[in-house]
Amino acid sequence: MAIVKRPRIISIICIALVLGCLVSFFYLFAPSIKKLGGLIPAVLGLIITLQFVSVIGLWHMKRWGVQLFLISYFIRFITFYLLGILSTYQSVAAVFMTFYIIVFLVHYRKMDINL
Fold first, then answer.
1. Where are the alpha helices (DSSP H) in 3-109?
2. Is 2 a member of any domain?
3. What is the value of pTM for the model shown?
4. Number of domains in the chain
């Protein structure tokens, strides 16, 4: 398959998502997260790691990046809902993530199937 030039919108979204992952990583060390239990920071760290890896796939225009992004998005939402830590920030983030998913799905056919 020929190398497809990455659309500018995906580049911008990927940069925003990397910055979001960095901010989320520092959020893991907040006292409010530590109060939730010993295993919760590890679970949230795994979700952030999945999101970061999916962004790497998206940056390289790979379909598995979109698939992993969708999986991590739903895992994150379900986890935050079950832990009762949904907030206004999470609601705004969900709106942005939904927009990102729409953009990714529009460009999904142009992405490479191979690893």
1. 8-27, 31-34, 40-59, 63-83, 88-106
2. no
3. 0.84
4. 1
